[in-house]
UniProtKB/TrEMBL annotation:
Zn(2+) 1 binds at H13, H15, K99, D247. This is Dihydroorotase. The modification N6-carboxylysine is found at K99. Transmembrane segments: none annotated. It comes from Idiomarina seosinensis.
Amino acid sequence: MQQLTITRPDDWHLHLRDGKLLETTVPASAQTFKRAVVMPNLMPPVTTVDMALAYRQRIIEALPAALTFEPLMALYLTAETSADEVKKAAQHPHIIGFKLYPSGATTNSAAGIKSVEALAPVLEVMQEQQVPLLVHGEVTDADIDIFDREKVFIDRHLLPITTQFPQLRLVLEHITTGDAVDFVNGSNDNVAATITPQHLLMNRNDLLVGGVKPHNYCLPILKRREHQLRLQQAALSGSSKFFLGTDSAPHVKANKETACGCAGCYSAPAALELYAEFFDQHKALDKLENFASVNGAAFYGFERNQQTVTLIRKPWSLPASLDTADGVIVPYYAGQSLQWQMTKHR
Ligand SMILES: NC(=O)N[C@@H](CC(=O)O)C(=O)O
Ligand SMILES: [Zn+2]
Ligand SMILES: [Zn+2]
Protein backbone atom coordinates (compact mmCIF):
# COMPACT_ATOMS: atom_id res chain seq x y z
CA MET A 1 0.00 0.00 0.00
CA GLN A 2 1.34 3.42 -0.96
CA GLN A 3 -1.55 5.65 0.03
CA LEU A 4 -4.24 5.55 2.69
CA THR A 5 -7.26 7.81 3.06
CA ILE A 6 -9.14 7.72 6.35
CA THR A 7 -11.77 9.73 8.17
CA ARG A 8 -10.15 12.79 9.74
CA PRO A 9 -8.98 11.72 13.23
CA ASP A 10 -9.50 13.22 16.70
CA ASP A 11 -7.01 13.48 19.56
CA TRP A 12 -8.70 12.45 22.80
CA HIS A 13 -5.83 13.59 25.07
CA LEU A 14 -3.80 16.71 24.31
CA HIS A 15 -1.81 19.40 26.11
CA LEU A 16 -1.75 22.71 24.23
CA ARG A 17 -0.33 24.85 27.08
CA ASP A 18 -1.13 28.58 26.98
CA GLY A 19 0.07 32.03 25.95
CA LYS A 20 2.29 32.50 22.91
CA LEU A 21 3.05 28.77 22.70
CA LEU A 22 -0.51 28.26 21.42
CA GLU A 23 0.72 29.74 18.13
CA THR A 24 2.86 26.61 17.77
CA THR A 25 0.75 23.93 19.41
CA VAL A 26 -2.69 24.78 18.02
CA PRO A 27 -1.75 24.68 14.30
CA ALA A 28 0.38 21.57 14.89
CA SER A 29 -2.64 19.61 16.15
CA ALA A 30 -5.31 21.30 14.03
CA GLN A 31 -3.51 20.45 10.79
CA THR A 32 -4.41 16.82 11.49
CA PHE A 33 -7.12 16.51 14.11
CA LYS A 34 -10.68 17.79 13.90
CA ARG A 35 -11.40 17.55 17.62
CA ALA A 36 -9.14 17.36 20.63
CA VAL A 37 -9.68 16.91 24.33
CA VAL A 38 -7.62 19.74 25.83
CA MET A 39 -6.07 19.00 29.19
CA PRO A 40 -6.52 21.52 32.03
CA ASN A 41 -3.15 21.27 33.83
CA LEU A 42 -2.20 24.91 33.38
CA MET A 43 -0.90 27.13 36.16
CA PRO A 44 -3.34 27.87 37.71
CA PRO A 45 -5.39 24.81 36.74
CA VAL A 46 -8.57 25.14 34.68
CA THR A 47 -11.09 24.23 37.36
CA THR A 48 -14.31 25.94 36.26
CA VAL A 49 -16.51 26.14 33.18
CA ASP A 50 -15.81 29.87 32.90
CA MET A 51 -12.04 29.37 33.02
CA ALA A 52 -12.27 26.62 30.40
CA LEU A 53 -14.33 28.78 28.06
CA ALA A 54 -11.82 31.63 28.38
CA TYR A 55 -8.97 29.18 27.67
CA ARG A 56 -10.90 27.79 24.72
CA GLN A 57 -11.22 31.31 23.33
CA ARG A 58 -7.44 31.79 23.51
CA ILE A 59 -7.02 28.50 21.62
CA ILE A 60 -9.47 29.59 18.91
CA GLU A 61 -7.60 32.89 18.55
CA ALA A 62 -4.40 30.95 17.79
CA LEU A 63 -6.10 28.89 15.09
CA PRO A 64 -5.14 29.75 11.48
CA ALA A 65 -8.20 30.68 9.43
CA ALA A 66 -7.66 27.83 6.98
CA LEU A 67 -8.01 25.12 9.64
CA THR A 68 -11.10 23.78 11.37
CA PHE A 69 -10.57 22.56 14.91
CA GLU A 70 -12.87 21.88 17.81
CA PRO A 71 -11.28 22.03 21.27
CA LEU A 72 -13.23 19.97 23.82
CA MET A 73 -12.29 21.23 27.24
CA ALA A 74 -11.53 19.01 30.24
CA LEU A 75 -11.94 20.60 33.67
CA TYR A 76 -9.48 19.93 36.47
CA LEU A 77 -11.15 18.01 39.27
CA THR A 78 -10.25 19.18 42.76
CA ALA A 79 -11.49 18.46 46.28
CA GLU A 80 -13.52 21.67 45.92
CA THR A 81 -15.33 20.75 42.68
CA SER A 82 -19.04 21.24 43.41
CA ALA A 83 -22.12 19.38 42.22
CA ASP A 84 -23.27 22.65 40.65
CA GLU A 85 -20.08 22.92 38.57
CA VAL A 86 -20.60 19.35 37.35
CA LYS A 87 -24.18 20.19 36.37
CA LYS A 88 -23.02 23.36 34.63
CA ALA A 89 -20.36 21.37 32.75
CA ALA A 90 -22.96 18.80 31.72
CA GLN A 91 -24.98 21.54 30.00
CA HIS A 92 -22.09 22.96 28.03
CA PRO A 93 -21.25 21.45 24.62
CA HIS A 94 -17.63 22.69 24.75
CA ILE A 95 -16.88 20.89 28.03
CA ILE A 96 -16.08 17.19 27.68
CA GLY A 97 -15.59 16.09 31.30
CA PHE A 98 -13.43 16.28 34.41
CA LYS A 99 -9.82 15.18 34.70
CA LEU A 100 -8.64 13.45 37.84
CA TYR A 101 -4.99 14.09 38.64
CA PRO A 102 -3.72 12.43 41.81
CA SER A 103 -1.88 15.20 43.63
CA GLY A 104 1.80 15.12 42.69
CA ALA A 105 1.45 12.43 39.99
CA THR A 106 2.53 14.51 37.01
CA THR A 107 3.15 17.97 35.50
CA ASN A 108 1.13 20.67 37.30
CA SER A 109 -0.81 18.23 39.45
CA ALA A 110 -0.20 19.88 42.84
CA ALA A 111 -3.84 20.99 42.96
CA GLY A 112 -4.99 17.43 42.28
CA ILE A 113 -6.77 14.85 44.39
CA LYS A 114 -5.37 13.66 47.72
CA SER A 115 -8.27 11.35 48.60
CA VAL A 116 -10.02 9.50 45.79
CA GLU A 117 -12.52 8.09 48.31
CA ALA A 118 -13.66 11.60 49.22
CA LEU A 119 -14.76 12.12 45.59
CA ALA A 120 -17.74 9.78 45.93
CA PRO A 121 -20.41 12.52 46.15
CA VAL A 122 -19.09 14.33 43.05
CA LEU A 123 -18.68 11.06 41.12
CA GLU A 124 -22.30 10.29 41.96
CA VAL A 125 -23.34 13.54 40.25
CA MET A 126 -21.05 12.89 37.29
CA GLN A 127 -22.62 9.46 36.87
CA GLU A 128 -26.11 10.91 37.07
CA GLN A 129 -25.29 13.74 34.64
CA GLN A 130 -23.32 11.42 32.34
CA VAL A 131 -20.23 13.65 32.55
CA PRO A 132 -17.11 11.59 31.75
CA LEU A 133 -14.27 11.18 34.25
CA LEU A 134 -10.82 11.20 32.63
CA VAL A 135 -8.12 9.68 34.80
CA HIS A 136 -4.37 9.96 35.18
CA GLY A 137 -4.16 6.55 36.83
CA GLU A 138 -1.12 6.47 39.08
CA VAL A 139 -0.75 6.41 42.85
CA THR A 140 1.90 8.73 44.26
CA ASP A 141 2.86 6.99 47.51
CA ALA A 142 6.61 7.16 48.03
CA ASP A 143 6.71 3.45 48.90
CA ILE A 144 5.16 2.37 45.57
CA ASP A 145 7.68 1.77 42.81
CA ILE A 146 7.22 4.11 39.84
CA PHE A 147 6.75 1.12 37.50
CA ASP A 148 3.89 -0.24 39.67
CA ARG A 149 1.97 2.99 40.14
CA GLU A 150 -0.62 2.37 37.43
CA LYS A 151 -1.45 -1.17 38.56
CA VAL A 152 -1.78 -0.09 42.19
CA PHE A 153 -4.06 2.80 41.19
CA ILE A 154 -6.31 0.39 39.29
CA ASP A 155 -6.51 -2.05 42.21
CA ARG A 156 -6.95 0.56 44.91
CA HIS A 157 -9.14 3.12 43.18
CA LEU A 158 -10.49 2.22 39.75
CA LEU A 159 -11.96 -1.18 40.56
CA PRO A 160 -13.85 0.29 43.55
CA ILE A 161 -15.03 3.30 41.48
CA THR A 162 -16.35 1.17 38.61
CA THR A 163 -18.07 -1.15 41.11
CA GLN A 164 -19.69 1.73 42.99
CA PHE A 165 -20.54 3.78 39.87
CA PRO A 166 -21.15 1.31 37.03
CA GLN A 167 -22.83 3.93 34.84
CA LEU A 168 -20.00 6.46 35.20
CA ARG A 169 -18.27 7.14 31.87
CA LEU A 170 -14.56 6.68 32.57
CA VAL A 171 -11.49 7.00 30.35
CA LEU A 172 -8.22 5.70 31.71
CA GLU A 173 -5.75 7.99 29.97
CA HIS A 174 -2.40 7.08 28.43
CA ILE A 175 -2.39 3.44 29.54
CA THR A 176 1.00 1.77 29.92
CA THR A 177 0.49 -1.75 31.30
CA GLY A 178 -1.13 -5.09 30.61
CA ASP A 179 -2.93 -4.52 33.91
CA ALA A 180 -4.65 -1.46 32.43
CA VAL A 181 -5.60 -3.41 29.29
CA ASP A 182 -7.12 -6.13 31.51
CA PHE A 183 -8.97 -3.55 33.60
CA VAL A 184 -10.50 -1.89 30.53
CA ASN A 185 -11.41 -5.18 28.85
CA GLY A 186 -12.88 -6.47 32.11
CA SER A 187 -15.06 -3.39 32.61
CA ASN A 188 -18.38 -2.57 30.99
CA ASP A 189 -18.86 -0.34 27.93
CA ASN A 190 -18.68 2.82 30.05
CA VAL A 191 -14.93 2.30 30.46
CA ALA A 192 -12.36 2.99 27.74
CA ALA A 193 -8.71 4.01 27.38
CA THR A 194 -6.43 6.20 25.31
CA ILE A 195 -3.03 4.99 24.09
CA THR A 196 -0.12 7.28 23.14
CA PRO A 197 2.29 6.76 20.23
CA GLN A 198 5.29 6.52 22.55
CA HIS A 199 3.76 3.68 24.59
CA LEU A 200 3.07 1.73 21.37
CA LEU A 201 6.46 2.38 19.77
CA MET A 202 8.72 2.19 22.81
CA ASN A 203 9.46 0.50 26.10
CA ARG A 204 11.75 1.45 28.97
CA ASN A 205 14.85 0.30 27.13
CA ASP A 206 14.25 3.25 24.79
CA LEU A 207 14.43 5.50 27.83
CA LEU A 208 17.38 4.01 29.65
CA VAL A 209 19.66 1.79 27.52
CA GLY A 210 22.80 3.42 26.17
CA GLY A 211 22.26 6.62 28.15
CA VAL A 212 19.17 8.35 29.47
CA LYS A 213 16.90 9.74 26.74
CA PRO A 214 15.02 12.64 28.29
CA HIS A 215 12.81 13.19 25.25
CA ASN A 216 11.34 9.71 25.74
CA TYR A 217 10.51 10.49 29.36
CA CYS A 218 6.82 10.87 30.01
CA LEU A 219 4.36 9.82 32.66
CA PRO A 220 3.19 7.22 33.24
CA ILE A 221 6.75 6.10 32.56
CA LEU A 222 7.51 3.68 29.70
CA LYS A 223 7.23 0.12 31.00
CA ARG A 224 8.95 -3.17 30.22
CA ARG A 225 8.55 -4.74 26.77
CA GLU A 226 5.90 -7.27 27.83
CA HIS A 227 3.60 -4.38 28.77
CA GLN A 228 4.33 -2.64 25.46
CA LEU A 229 3.29 -5.86 23.70
CA ARG A 230 -0.01 -5.94 25.63
CA LEU A 231 -0.75 -2.32 24.60
CA GLN A 232 0.11 -3.15 21.00
CA GLN A 233 -2.27 -6.13 21.11
CA ALA A 234 -5.02 -3.92 22.52
CA ALA A 235 -4.60 -1.35 19.74
CA LEU A 236 -4.37 -4.07 17.08
CA SER A 237 -7.34 -6.01 18.47
CA GLY A 238 -9.80 -3.59 16.93
CA SER A 239 -11.66 -3.29 20.24
CA SER A 240 -13.65 -0.05 20.33
CA LYS A 241 -12.54 0.48 23.96
CA PHE A 242 -9.11 1.70 22.86
CA PHE A 243 -8.50 4.88 20.92
CA LEU A 244 -6.04 7.58 19.99
CA GLY A 245 -4.89 10.09 22.61
CA THR A 246 -1.45 11.45 21.87
CA ASP A 247 -0.76 13.05 25.27
CA SER A 248 1.39 15.44 23.24
CA ALA A 249 2.93 17.50 26.06
CA PRO A 250 5.56 20.08 25.09
CA HIS A 251 8.29 21.23 27.44
CA VAL A 252 11.15 23.44 26.30
CA LYS A 253 14.49 21.72 25.69
CA ALA A 254 16.06 23.44 28.69
CA ASN A 255 13.47 21.83 30.98
CA LYS A 256 13.91 18.37 29.43
CA GLU A 257 17.71 18.22 29.18
CA THR A 258 18.52 19.12 32.76
CA ALA A 259 19.23 17.66 36.19
CA CYS A 260 15.52 17.29 37.00
CA GLY A 261 13.76 17.00 33.67
CA CYS A 262 10.07 17.43 32.96
CA ALA A 263 7.84 14.55 31.85
CA GLY A 264 6.10 14.79 28.49
CA CYS A 265 6.70 14.07 24.79
CA TYR A 266 5.82 16.67 22.16
CA SER A 267 4.38 14.34 19.53
CA ALA A 268 1.91 16.70 17.82
CA PRO A 269 4.15 17.55 14.81
CA ALA A 270 3.96 13.92 13.62
CA ALA A 271 1.09 12.49 15.65
CA LEU A 272 -0.86 10.57 13.03
CA GLU A 273 2.31 9.57 11.21
CA LEU A 274 3.69 8.01 14.42
CA TYR A 275 0.57 5.89 14.85
CA ALA A 276 0.72 4.96 11.13
CA GLU A 277 4.31 3.83 11.69
CA PHE A 278 3.17 1.53 14.49
CA PHE A 279 0.22 0.03 12.60
CA ASP A 280 2.35 -0.40 9.47
CA GLN A 281 5.09 -2.18 11.46
CA HIS A 282 2.41 -4.68 12.41
CA LYS A 283 0.93 -4.91 8.89
CA ALA A 284 -2.30 -3.57 10.27
CA LEU A 285 -2.81 -0.19 8.59
CA ASP A 286 -6.41 -1.27 8.06
CA LYS A 287 -6.88 -0.89 11.84
CA LEU A 288 -5.66 2.71 11.94
CA GLU A 289 -8.95 4.37 11.00
CA ASN A 290 -11.10 2.86 13.74
CA PHE A 291 -8.43 3.53 16.34
CA ALA A 292 -7.77 7.12 15.24
CA SER A 293 -11.11 8.32 13.87
CA VAL A 294 -14.00 6.10 14.94
CA ASN A 295 -13.73 4.52 18.41
CA GLY A 296 -13.20 7.70 20.42
CA ALA A 297 -16.03 9.61 18.74
CA ALA A 298 -18.35 6.67 19.34
CA PHE A 299 -17.40 6.47 23.02
CA TYR A 300 -18.01 10.17 23.57
CA GLY A 301 -21.23 10.13 21.55
CA PHE A 302 -20.11 12.26 18.60
CA GLU A 303 -20.74 11.85 14.91
CA ARG A 304 -17.84 10.64 12.86
CA ASN A 305 -15.96 13.49 11.12
CA GLN A 306 -16.97 14.27 7.55
CA GLN A 307 -13.54 15.15 6.23
CA THR A 308 -10.74 12.76 5.35
CA VAL A 309 -6.96 12.84 5.57
CA THR A 310 -4.57 11.06 3.26
CA LEU A 311 -1.28 9.45 4.19
CA ILE A 312 1.29 8.62 1.55
CA ARG A 313 4.29 6.34 1.89
CA LYS A 314 7.17 8.76 1.55
CA PRO A 315 9.92 8.60 4.16
CA TRP A 316 10.81 11.82 5.97
CA SER A 317 12.62 12.84 9.12
CA LEU A 318 11.46 14.90 12.04
CA PRO A 319 13.45 18.08 12.67
CA ALA A 320 16.00 18.01 15.49
CA SER A 321 14.27 20.92 17.18
CA LEU A 322 11.64 23.60 16.73
CA ASP A 323 11.85 27.28 17.59
CA THR A 324 8.86 28.52 19.54
CA ALA A 325 7.86 31.63 21.45
CA ASP A 326 8.80 29.84 24.69
CA GLY A 327 12.18 28.66 23.39
CA VAL A 328 13.52 25.59 21.61
CA ILE A 329 11.40 22.44 21.81
CA VAL A 330 12.69 19.03 20.77
CA PRO A 331 9.82 17.04 19.29
CA TYR A 332 9.26 13.39 20.10
CA TYR A 333 11.15 11.22 17.55
CA ALA A 334 13.40 14.17 16.65
CA GLY A 335 15.81 13.35 13.84
CA GLN A 336 14.28 9.90 13.33
CA SER A 337 12.57 8.89 10.15
CA LEU A 338 8.97 7.92 9.53
CA GLN A 339 7.58 6.05 6.54
CA TRP A 340 4.29 7.90 6.17
CA GLN A 341 3.40 11.51 5.57
CA MET A 342 0.09 13.24 5.74
CA THR A 343 -0.76 15.27 2.65
CA LYS A 344 -2.30 18.64 3.33
CA HIS A 345 -5.31 17.95 1.14
CA ARG A 346 -8.56 16.80 2.57
N1 LIG B 1 2.33 12.86 30.22
C1 LIG B 1 3.31 13.61 30.69
O1 LIG B 1 4.41 13.09 30.89
N2 LIG B 1 3.15 14.93 30.96
C2 LIG B 1 1.94 15.69 30.88
C3 LIG B 1 1.01 15.43 32.01
C4 LIG B 1 0.27 14.11 31.95
O2 LIG B 1 -0.44 13.83 31.00
O3 LIG B 1 0.38 13.32 32.90
C5 LIG B 1 2.30 17.17 30.86
O4 LIG B 1 1.40 18.01 31.02
O5 LIG B 1 3.48 17.50 30.67
ZN1 LIG C 1 -1.36 12.20 32.73
ZN1 LIG D 1 -1.46 14.18 29.45
